[in-house]
TrEMBL record:
This is DUF2157 domain-containing protein. Residues 9-154 form the DUF2157 domain. Pfam families: DUF2157 (PF09925). Keywords: Membrane, Transmembrane, Transmembrane helix. It comes from the Bacteria. The keyword Magnesium does not apply. The keyword Transmembrane helix applies. The chain crosses the membrane at residues 41-61, 67-84, 105-125, 131-150, 155-174, 186-205, 217-235, 241-257, 264-281, 293-311. It comes from Rhodocytophaga aerolata.
Length: 323
């Protein structure tokens, strides 16, 4: 605690000099939590280990040989999953406690090394040929299974990412990727459907109490995919009214959820995505003078700042509540 505050409290006789000394001593000697620092270091360690493995293979491929490299990567992957299987907690539809501080990171390392193994096999031996959808479908299925079996949020995020990649490849002709034309109606509509499905899955899981703590991951991915797809449709496709209505509906839904759950994150998400869409529509008005655009940005930015500054009133939370 700040010494000035302690001195003020002591001068006003709200606390005694002995209490001031006790507070100072406590602040000086109480243990400092390194929880998030250690988690960050462990995540970085997993990433650096995979990066180092990739560099080792790249620099010594002529000496090591492809079969030896594949055997090494597969051994690391299998060892991670063997450890996870041996030490996992009993499966439960609710949250399962991690059996050790390193358990989640070993599972994460196993999934990363599986991706390296699959990518190496495809690059060197073309095991999937031109069936790129299969190359994303297999890790998607594996990651969903691993996420639920070992209760791992990070792997669930990887599984949803793989799902989005698989759908993008499955519904889209390969010439779109060859020509780098991502303004495809199929991709945009698929993104909207996927976003709605993920949001629906979030609420269904929470209602049925099936890994309820996973619902935030589904909702976060679903909402962002839905908003981005609506904006992409607004800018790339000739259906302004349709995508404006979808964007408005998504914005109102996010604000409603933010008020219901006291979520500042979803409030900011709704405001920023809506502002992006409105700003784009403003630029499409040809008769609008450049000075009007300038004042639009000045006034709109000020309005957003004022709006967000009043978030506690909007969300109806007390000043000491965490949002």
């Amino acid at each position: 605690m700040n010494e000035t505050i302690l001195r003020t409290l002591a001068d006003e006789q709200l606390i005694s000099r002995e209490q001031v000394q006790q507070i100072k001593e406590y602040e000086r000697e109480h243990p400092f939590s390194l929880h998030w620092e250690l988690k960050t270091i462990l995540y970085l360690g997993v990433i650096l280990l995979n990066t180092g493995l990739g560099l080792l293979i790249y620099l010594n491929i002529d000496t090591i040989g492809h079969q030896a490299v594949i055997a090494l990567i597969a051994a690391v992957c299998l060892a991670c999953f063997w450890y996870a299987e041996k030490h996992k907690a009993a499966f439960s539809l609710s949250r399962a406690e991690s059996p050790s501080p390193y358990f989640d990171y070993i599972v994460l390392l196993g999934c990363f090394t599986f991706l390296i193994l699959e990518g190496y096999l495809q690059y060197q031996y073309q095991v999937f040929g031109q069936k790129y959808g299969l190359a994303t479908f297999i890790p998607m299925v594996l990651f969903f299974f691993v996420a639920y079996y070992f209760d791992h949020k990070g792997i669930l995020a990887m599984a949803i990412t793989a799902l989005a990649s698989w759908l993008g490849i499955a519904v889209t002709p390969l010439d779109i990727f060859d020509n780098n034309n991502f303004a495809s109606a199929r991709i945009i509509y698929t993104g909207i459907i996927l976003g709605i499905v993920l949001c629906g899955a979030s609420f269904l899981l929470a209602q049925q109490h099936i890994k309820k703590h996973f619902s935030s991951i589904y909702l976060n991915f679903g909402a962002n995919i839905l908003f981005i797809s609506c904006l992409a449709g607004l800018m790339a496709l000739d259906h302004t009214m349709l995508f404006s209505a979808l964007l408005a509906l998504a914005t109102l839904s996010a604000i409603f959820y933010a008020k219901k759950e006291n979520s500042f994150y979803f409030l900011v998400m709704a405001v920023l995505y809506a502002y992006w869409g409105i700003s784009y529509l403003m630029f499409q008005i040809e008769a609008l003078h450049s000075n009007a655009i300038f004042w639009y940005f000045i006034v709109s930015c000020a309005a957003i700042l004022i709006f967000l500054a009043q978030y506690k009133k909007i969300l109806k939370v007390q000043s000491n509540d965490s949002v």
